[in-house]
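HUMAN: Please help interpret these tokens:
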Amino acid sequence: MLRPATDADQENVRTWRNHDEVRAVSLTQHVISADEHAAWWANTKDNPSRHVLIYERGGVPSGVVTFFDLDVDAKTSWWGYYLDNDGLTARGELLPAWIQIQREAVKYADAELGLDTLDAEVLEINEGVRRFNKRNGFTELETQTREIGGENVAVIHVRRERPRTDRQEPTS
């Protein structure tokens, strides 16, 4: 289940984001400080071009999905997600949660946000996510080299376009 993030979720979001395995596949890999996270949250929570959602598994907050650069008129957005790796691993639920969070986020993008195009970036080394993206209708577009954590890293732009037959046309 996805629900809007609240102020009470702030610390969980920061803790999950700072997990070593999450940082290793992120575009920014430093540890996020409490002050940096608080500033991000203040700029994000009331921003209409951003949606931050908490993924709950069995009623337990277990991950976060962010939609950003959301353009409701153009029906486009960028997105990303990460999980509570420690909590889900301890419960033996990391893999099924990883599958479920992406599927729920794509459904949310279609049904709740009405998006036709959903963009993301993934590190080339993140083979598991790349394979899963392909299974869920994402296409790899172009690859750029960026400096991340002091190293040159290949970053792939991926996109999912909702099939034309699934798109809702505006009513007049």
Q: What stands out?
A: Helices lie at 10-17, 20-24, 34-44, 85-90, 94-111, 127-135. The CA atoms of residues 41 and 167 lie 32 Å apart.
